[in-house]
Amino acid sequence: MTAPFGQAGTAKYVRLTTFRKDGTPVATPIWAALDGEALLMWTVSDSWKVKRLRRNTAVIVQACDMRGKQTFGPPVKGTATVLDSEGTDHAREVIIKKYGIMGWLTVKGSLLRRGKNGTIGLKVVADA
Question: What is the pTM of this model?
């Protein structure tokens, strides 16, 4: 079986492209970690990417550098889901596991700063 996300499944940074109401793509670099056949991400709850995903679940993911400018491997079309509280907790755990001490410090710092509802998990499943 081949990995559904290619390089994006193992990259340190992933460019998540969401779409505005008019269809304009908006790309953002983000941490992501594989969880089975899904790619889990974690972000600020009131971010524009979350608002766009609530309206349109279509996304494109691709491995990138930390600024999202240089990309690697092919882009992968997928469908994103904004996770509930339990799913977000799991996404935090998966991110911490992949990113080690930096992941732990970032997640714990965010929990202190924003509280438990200040961030939210995202789940992307590759289109067939």
Answer: 0.90
